[in-house]
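Recall the central idea of this unit: under ordinary conditions, the amino acid sequence of a chain determines the structure it adopts. In this exercise we apply that idea directly, starting from the sequence alone.
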Amino acid sequence: MLRLDEVLPGVQEEVNRRIHALPPALMQVAFSEAVIDSRLATSECLFVALRGERVDGHEFLADAAARGARGALVRRSKVSSLTLERPYVVIDPVTGEGLERATPDTMLLIAVDDPQAALNRLAAYHRGMYNPVVIGITGSVGKTSTKEVTAGVLQRSFRTLKSPRSYNSEATLPIVLLKLTADHQVAVLEMGMYGPGEIAHLAALARPRLGIVTNVGPSHLERMGSIEAIQRAKSELPQALPEDGFAILNIDDPRVRAMAEVTRARPFFYGLDPAADLWADAIESRGLQGVSFRVHYQGDGLHLTLPLLGRHSVHTALAAASAGLLLGMEWEAIIAGLRSEGAQLRLLAVPGINQTTLIDDTYNASPASMQAALNLLAELDGRRIAILGDMLELGSIEEEAHRMVGARAAEVAQILIAVGQRARWIANEAQQAGLPADQVYAVDDNDAAAHLARNLLAPGDFVLIKGSRGMFMETIVSQLQAHRP
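Accordingly, the structure predicted from this sequence is:
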């Protein structure tokens, strides 16, 4: 709960913060949560009217009000043009003006110069009221998976808050921080990157003591300009860690390994290199039955079999185990967490039409994750079909990257369906690599891909579906599922 007497000082700039005594009628007013999507508004929430690239949250204030929002953070310059059907009062958090007219039944519009900046200040203020161990997670690929598995492990021993979905941006990470309570011992937070300085900004709000960096790859290369710029941006997390913290780094990625040189925290390496603090060998992927490997730590070896899909999930498990070990967990609890339902990855095997199995890896795509998904498909015993969509934001390497995926698809799949304009490079390269032309299809959109697949699928087929988030390829999964949601 966010009490009104916390929100009003919290949204102000720290140097000029003023605290006003609330009228007795408002002393118990509190907000259940903060939301930035009016569709998520509830009768007790605080709606934050953010201005995005395409829409302005003020346009949805009436919807939030109709859903019963108790209050809202609004831009001061917009107040005069607001019209709501519910009674409301505009409150200036600096002067306190409007408090005397407010009642528990009126909608409280808290007027600020910039709702995004005010939300950031409030999140930092709220974070400062508690003392959890915060774990920040970043990387070009695997942030969300690592967050889910790490939280699944830590939940075995600690009361844990984690980012929902991919709440990892300047707009959404503050929403997670506002969910912190005195009950939480650990917070596992994903930190994304839109441009230079964003991870540093998120780390300043969250104040992590542990930071996990999974890898550095060409995701967002179009926006960032170079792989070196991406490396520098990801380095902002280990740079933000305190001296008594730990930078948990993937030793197998040279660009991540080098981040040990820029952090004040103690580096803790994980990976497949025996030089790591925690490393694995004897990896055996068992397709949809999971993966087994031997893990080594402080001279001891332990054999694990986990319900995680693909060889690449070993790195995810090692990162999560690293966090558990550094927080004092015993292996028994760590293994139980790795095997728990809460630690399962986004990549899912779901029943498809015509007695097929769909490998749903539609959350996002990069050259590395495409290769990993195809490697998993290669391990399955049956006819293998790959439905692959565009990979976005790859800049100057986009043709090369798509063709690389096409070459691997030709080695793995018996049928390839490429979706989107860039994916035509995948189809073209697959044919050049030897996949017969009558087994390669190129279509423009998801509906065409689903329609085509419905006519091709046969009992026993395994179907990998993967593309960038902006391709919305989960719509293909929904059309091919045996029992549609």
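Residues 398-412 form the longest helix (15 residues).
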